[in-house]
C-alpha cells in the first residue's frame, strides 16, 4: 500500500515537472505572437477617445513608439506573467486532476469525464491568479504609460516606465496590497476561463480521437487544433 502511494506521488510530481517546463516554453511562444495585439487591446480599453479602431491604434503606436517601446511595451512583465501562468497551471493541473479523481471516485485521472477535466482546470486557475494579478498590473501600466504621459495624466520620466520602477512605485505608495488590486475579478476570470478552456480542449480531443483509439494517440496537429478550440471556448 505504501509503495503504491509513493508511486502515485512520484507520478504526480513527474507530471507536474513536465507540465511546468512545457508551460514555460508555451508562455514564451504566446508572448512572442500575441504581445502587439495585447498592447492594442489595452490601449483601446484605456483610451477609447484616442483610438477609433484597432488598425489606427496599431499604426499610431508603431509610428510613434516603434516596436520595442511601442507594440512590445510591457514584454518583460508579460513574459513573466505568461511563463508563470502556463507553468503554474500545467504544474498544478495533475494534482488537481488527482484531487477531482479522488473526490469523485473515478479510479484514476484517465477515467475523468470532460466536465471533471474542466473542474480540474478551474481549480488550477486559483494558483495562476495568485501569480498573474501583480504581473498583469505592471504590464498594463507599462503599456499605457506613454499615452498617459502624452495626455498629461502623469508626470513621470521615461526612466520610470520600466517594470522594476513601476513595481517599486506601487509598493511604495500602496504596499503589497496594491499589487493585488483587482484580485477577485482575476480569480474569477482564471477559474471560469480555465474551466471552459480545459473543458473545450478535452471535448475536442474526444471528437478528434478515432474510434478504437485513445486521446493520447492524437498527434501534435490534432492536439494543437484541440488547444485552439479550448482557447476559443
From TrEMBL:
One Pfam family, short name: Mito_carr
Any GO molecular function: L-ornithine transmembrane transporter activity
Keyword Acyltransferase: no
The organism's place on the tree of life at top rank: Eukaryota
SUPFAM superfamilies tied to this protein: Mitochondrial carrier
Subcellular location, record wording: Mitochondrion membrane
Per-repeat ranges for Solcar: 14-99, 112-207
BP GO terms, sorted: mitochondrial L-ornithine transmembrane transport
Keywords: Membrane, Mitochondrion, Repeat, Transmembrane, Transmembrane helix, Transport
Species: Dibothriocephalus latus (Fish tapeworm)
Protein's name according to its UniProt entry: Mitochondrial carrier protein
Membrane topology of this protein: Multi-pass membrane protein
InterPro entries in UniProt: MCP_dom_sf, MCP_transmembrane, Mitochondrial_Carrier
Signal sequence extent: none
Family: Belongs to the mitochondrial carrier (TC 2.A.29) family.
GO cellular component: mitochondrial membrane
UniProt keyword annotation of Mitochondrion present: yes
Amino acid at each position: 500500500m505504501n509503495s503504491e502511494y509513493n508511486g502515485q506521488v512520484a507520478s504526480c510530481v513527474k507530471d507536474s515537472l513536465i507540465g511546468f517546463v512545457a508551460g514555460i516554453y508555451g508562455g514564451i511562444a504566446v508572448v512572442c505572437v500575441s504581445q502587439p495585439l495585447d498592447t492594442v487591446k489595452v490601449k483601446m480599453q484605456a483610451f477609447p477617445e484616442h483610438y477609433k479602431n484597432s488598425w489606427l491604434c496599431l499604426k499610431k503606436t508603431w509610428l510613434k513608439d516603434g516596436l520595442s517601446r511601442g507594440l512590445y511595451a510591457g514584454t518583460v512583465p508579460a513574459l513573466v506573467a505568461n511563463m508563470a501562468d502556463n507553468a503554474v497551471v500545467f504544474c498544478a493541473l495533475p494534482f488537481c486532476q488527482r484531487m477531482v479523481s479522488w473526490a469523485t471516485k473515478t479510479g484514476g485521472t484517465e477515467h475523468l469525464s470532460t466536465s471533471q477535466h474542466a473542474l480540474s482546470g478551474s481549480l488550477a486557475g486559483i494558483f495562476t491568479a495568485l501569480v498573474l494579478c501583480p504581473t498583469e498590473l505592471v504590464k498594463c501600466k507599462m503599456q499605457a504609460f506613454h499615452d498617459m504621459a502624452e495626455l498629461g495624466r502623469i508626470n513621470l520620466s521615461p526612466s520610470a516606465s520600466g517594470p522594476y520602477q513601476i513595481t517599486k512605485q506601487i509598493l511604495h505608495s500602496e504596499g503589497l496590497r496594491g499589487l493585488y488590486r483587482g484580485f477577485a475579478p482575476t480569480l474569477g476570470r482564471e477559474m471560469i476561463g480555465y474551466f471552459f478552456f480545459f473543458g473545450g480542449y478535452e471535448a475536442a480531443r474526444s471528437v478528434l480521437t478515432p474510434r478504437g483509439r485513445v486521446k493520447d494517440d492524437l498527434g501534435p496537429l490534432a492536439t494543437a487544433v484541440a488547444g485552439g478550440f479550448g482557447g476559443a471556448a
